[in-house]
Design brief:
The protein is of the alpha/beta class and 297 residues long. It has two domains: 4-111 and 282-296, Nucleotidyltransferase, domain 5 (2-Layer Sandwich), CATH 3.30.420; 123-278, ATPase, nucleotide binding domain (Nucleotidyltransferase, domain 5), CATH 3.30.420. It is built from ten helices and twelve strands. The strands form three sheets. The protein has a five-stranded mixed sheet. A five-stranded mixed sheet has the order 10-9-8-11-12, sandwiched between helices. A two-stranded antiparallel sheet has the order 5-6. Helix 3 crosses helix 10. The longest helix is centred in the last third of the chain and has 25 residues, at 211-235.
Length: 297
């Protein structure tokens, strides 16, 4: 029986999911803090891949990888803010070294998340925004990813939503990611509270409707709504879904985005309504499995 592996590489964790034609047979997540060395990062990945092979006791026919890094046409990483030491590394060669006997392909994590959400919901025109360590996303139009093969990824995280906003790791000012990512939201909450804030602190404070927590998350929701509105004006997707690990843990955020979308709607134009991603924080992982199945066929 063929085994298909999907890998979602995030800023702080990595997730594996193995499927056969009968369904999921293995799923695991492990922390992946930056080690200041691409070689050390790859060694840790290799250790977990070896453990997976031991558990399965069967070969992997194909592997699909969801990546947050920017990759050039020569398959070399050109930018990865959370892991700058990977810059210049050949992604294709690195992945094939991990899986020498399997078909391997990679794609942007946001693009794969959008494809997975579109398939799960049966919607051919869908905007996906993933809020986690960063902000990514993807756009599916007429059932196909936009902008399309060989034309780069859908970088909604680097859409400017505040001209005088926070500086982004990319060097610009006011990018969506610099305002709405999980770490930026927590940092803003800490400034408003006057002390450090963990993810659990923020969730509990929102439940108690603490002003500092609501203000911090509201700015995130406003920034997300601004980006979604801009995309909506250009391509008119049928649905807009919000996912990613951070957003999945704070379900209130989707409703707040919808409220801001209604405020931003032009007269005579129905507002695009935000919905929670049907796959929660697993959209990119499921998309990676779909990619693995695609290259095996």
């Amino acid at each position: 029986m063929a085994h298909y592996l999907g890998i979602d590489i995030g800023g702080t964790k990595v997730a594996f999911r193995v499927e056969t034609d009968a369904g999921c047979v293995d799923e695991t997540t492990f922390p992946w803090a930056p080690r200041k060395s691409a070689a050390r990062d790859l060694a840790q990945l290799a250790d977990h891949v070896a453990g997976l092979r031991t558990r399965l006791g069967a070969p992997l026919r194909s592997v699909g990888v969801a990546m947050p890094a920017t990759v050039g046409p020569d398959d070399r990483i050109t930018a990865w803010p959370s892991r700058p030491e990977w810059t210049g590394l050949s992604l294709d060669a690195s992945l094939r070294a991990l899986f020498p006997q399997s078909a391997v392909a990679w794609a942007d994590d946001g693009d794969l998340g959008a494809l997975a959400e579109a398939r799960a919901s049966g919607c051919d025109d869908l905007l996906y925004v993933g809020v986690g360590t960063g902000v990514g996303g993807g756009l599916v139009l007429n059932g196909a990813p936009c902008p399309g093969l060989g034309r780069g990824s859908f970088e909604i995280g680097h859409v400017v939503v505040e001209l005088d906003g926070t500086f982004c790791v990319c060097g610009r000012q006011g990018c969506l990611q610099a305002i709405a990512s999980g770490p930026e939201t927590l940092e803003r909450a800490a400034l408003l509270r006057g002390e450090a804030v963990t993810f659990d602190d923020l969730r509990q404070a929102l439940h108690r409707e603490q002003p500092w927590a609501m203000s911090a998350v509201d700015r995130t929701a406003r920034a997300l709504a601004a980006a979604v509105t801009g995309v909506g004006e250009l391509v008119h997707p049928e649905r807009a879904v919000i996912g990613g690990g951070f957003a999945a843990g704070i379900p209130e955020i989707v409703g707040w985005v919808s409220e801001h979308l209604a405020v931003l709607a032009r007269p005579g134009q129905p507002p695009l309504r935000a919905e929670p991603a049907s796959l929660g924080g697993l959209s990119s992982l499921r998309g990676a499995v779909s990619l693995a199945r695609l290259i095996a066929s």
